[in-house]
Amino acid sequence: MIIFADSFLWIIMKLKYAIVGTGALGGFYGGKLAHSGQDVHFLFHSDYEFVKVNGLKIDSFNGSFLVKPVNAYQQANQMPACDVVLVCLKTNNNQLLREILPPLLHKDTVIVLVQNGLGIEQELSTHFPNNSIAGGLAFICSSKIGTGHIAHYDFGSIKFGSYQGENTEKLEQVCNDLKQAGIKAEFSQNLNEARWQKLVWNIPYNGLTVVLNTTTDRMMKQPDSRQLIWEIMMEVVEASKYCSTDVGENFAHKMMYMTDKMTPYAPSMKVDFDAKRPMEIQAIYTNPIQTALKAGYNMKKVSMLEQQLHFIQSLY
Amino acid sequence: MIIFADSFLWIIMKLKYAIVGTGALGGFYGGKLAHSGQDVHFLFHSDYEFVKVNGLKIDSFNGSFLVKPVNAYQQANQMPACDVVLVCLKTNNNQLLREILPPLLHKDTVIVLVQNGLGIEQELSTHFPNNSIAGGLAFICSSKIGTGHIAHYDFGSIKFGSYQGENTEKLEQVCNDLKQAGIKAEFSQNLNEARWQKLVWNIPYNGLTVVLNTTTDRMMKQPDSRQLIWEIMMEVVEASKYCSTDVGENFAHKMMYMTDKMTPYAPSMKVDFDAKRPMEIQAIYTNPIQTALKAGYNMKKVSMLEQQLHFIQSLY
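Predict the joint structure of the above. Result:
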């Protein structure tokens, strides 16, 4: 084997992936990578025993498949150190990462937060200052519908960006691996912009489907809720300008168009609400609101949505 | 009998009252007037037969009573012309007034809209340009809880104001009659101010109890919803300044204090929502929003609440 300088090794070496949180996102993207022949190691919680025996089932509108056998683990400290860790937990569980991540890391591991919201890489970097951190934004409609069973309803693209600019080649390699697995994956030079773009969709649809106890399609069809969605998107677009980027009104138009075409959908926050699980209010609402406020812009309707969500969650 | 000049007649003559809409408000105030010996004529809809036989029952925290017999009517054209018509319908039914009112009116009748919201006297005056119109703002917690059966839980004061400044003596006489019946009644020189004052309470509590599917006390106890109530009140206070009055921040503090002391309560809009009846969105939200907007102020959170209510009502 020819020995290359360290920095070139990733080009020819297969990446070792860890999936932390094998749900709607981790199950799907990890499953696709594994199904395409990548070396993927999945951390499971309650589904471990089932998946060990039955495998991980992905029902996708693009073609269903079963990953079997699965490199499944119940404890992070039984897992190998990996080159790329895709963190697909809900942000509310990120405090668990301080225990979960250390066994999975070597000095060049990239930790990718495939999560919604803002400010999460910053938070993680305070606990893992020597690791390379990145973010992943998934534009996908998927759900975990049973033990070891993921449903993929629509879309599926994912966009990656580096938190502090390191390891961009490795992230591009991740994109290539995903593309080979049939996923539309993209590397962005601007993680902050990618996160604000995703917020343009997440902020109106996640919160309003909970507060109005409904689905995306119903809100898009009724003129008042449609107008409210648009006004909330405009607040997020405006806030992005105060926060070192500008996602632009055109992007909001695209999100409206995409949601019109989308299968009727309950976003992840609505699924959490229905299951009486904690909602990701901090990452999706509080952090963007406070970031924009510090920069000089008050997202008034977004704040009202946050307040309504806090009230609703207080009644659980 | 000594004959006085017309304008003095009201001082010594007993007023003849008509109650249009014998529900939570009409049943209570009309019932109190009748119980105290006033000449009150009630228009009933479905409760007519029952009340004719069983009377009108008021369960009040201040003392319960039965009005029996009741001057009950099923058709407005069977009723006598009256000096004062207390309109206690929901504003959504105000189009019915064009048919109901004419038989009840003589040339000096005062039509009093004991209703919430803004712009309703103006609307009525286009159809009854030759009649004296007034407004009544009830600060009361009451409900119709059964056929011919009203429950009065808390408070009970009422404030009257003339729409165009006429007939103030007759309205003061109405106040006196109500006071004699044990009601805290007040005449205001400024109906516009009184309506905006009432909106400071109505706008946050009516809409939010529907959208959050809850009661006043729960929202007051949870910090985020409490803060949201306050912010919405501040929008209404600010709007009032653009609309020829200023209800003032102190009034909002009073409303917060009063609601803290209040029996847990579902406002009328929540009662309508639970019964899947149309909500008074136009009078309580749309009219104030548009009035303020024309005057140069955008009540953003109030508008969001209106949009949410429209969506919720569209699902009925």
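The CA atoms of residues 95 and 124 of chain A lie 9 Å apart.
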